[in-house]
């Protein structure tokens, strides 16, 4: 009987020791899992912040009253910091209001500096400066319109603008899509003409 009890006690001790030995490994596994999940959340947050910054930059670019090249939004969660410069207080306030209008923005820290146009005379008096800004804005607007249309959003279309004339290059699947892309570009306010160089793939 004593021998049997001793055997049972020994067996229980071995099982208990094995269970205790597995605890650190399990804890380590849970720690690694938690760390991986944390890293995944951080990457997701960074991607969302970058997406929001791009959305804000595009929104500023499409507003004719703002020079998008001087406004740099930084996003952290729902908070936005506006860095850069504008020509007057009206543009400064406008940039802030536009930022607040973007979905997902909860707070705006407006750090834009006001630099009057006369302080930036060298750049503004450069031949064609205003035209280049306008052309860049039109190019962005045409691209967004093409992306917004379900029949042209997946097409590889290059858009260039010079003096209000938009040139389309690339490949499309049919004549109808070629014509549609040109019509979309022509309907953008400010576009004077469209040169359609799109090629229909055979």
Automatic annotation (TrEMBL):
<keyword id="KW-0732">Signal</keyword>
<dbReference type="InterPro" id="IPR014004">
    <property type="entry name" value="Transpt-assoc_nodulatn_dom_bac"/>
</dbReference>
<dbReference type="Pfam" id="PF04972">
    <property type="entry name" value="BON"/>
</dbReference>
<dbReference type="InterPro" id="IPR051686">
    <property type="entry name" value="Lipoprotein_DolP"/>
</dbReference>
<feature type="domain" description="BON">
    <location>
        <begin position="134"/>
        <end position="202"/>
    </location>
</feature>
<protein>
    <submittedName>
        <fullName>BON domain-containing protein</fullName>
    </submittedName>
</protein>
<feature type="signal peptide">
    <location>
        <begin position="1"/>
        <end position="27"/>
    </location>
</feature>
<dbReference type="InterPro" id="IPR007055">
    <property type="entry name" value="BON_dom"/>
</dbReference>
<feature type="domain" description="BON">
    <location>
        <begin position="48"/>
        <end position="116"/>
    </location>
</feature>
């Amino acid at each position: 009987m004593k021998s049997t009890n001793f055997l049972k006690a020994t067996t229980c001790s071995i099982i208990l020791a094995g269970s205790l030995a597995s605890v650190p490994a399990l804890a380590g596994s849970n720690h690694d899992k938690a760390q991986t999940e944390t890293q995944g959340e951080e990457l997701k947050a960074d991607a969302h912040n970058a997406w929001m910054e791009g959305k804000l930059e595009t929104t500023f670019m499409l507003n004719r009253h703002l020079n998008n090249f001087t406004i740099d939004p930084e996003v952290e969660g729902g908070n936005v910091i506006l860095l850069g410069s504008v020509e007057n207080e009206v543009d400064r306030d406008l940039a802030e209001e536009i930022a607040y209008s973007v979905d997902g923005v909860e707070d705006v820290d407006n750090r834009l500096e006001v630099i009057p146009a006369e302080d930036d005379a060298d750049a503004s008096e450069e031949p064609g400066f205003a035209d280049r800004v306008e052309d860049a804005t039109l190019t962005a607007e045409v691209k967004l319109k093409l992306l917004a249309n379900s029949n042209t959003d997946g097409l590889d279309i290059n858009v260039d603008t010079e003096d209000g004339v938009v040139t389309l290059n690339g490949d499309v699947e049919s004549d109808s899509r070629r014509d549609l892309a040109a019509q979309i570009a022509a309907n953008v306010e400010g576009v004077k003409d469209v040169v359609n160089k799109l090629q229909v793939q055979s």
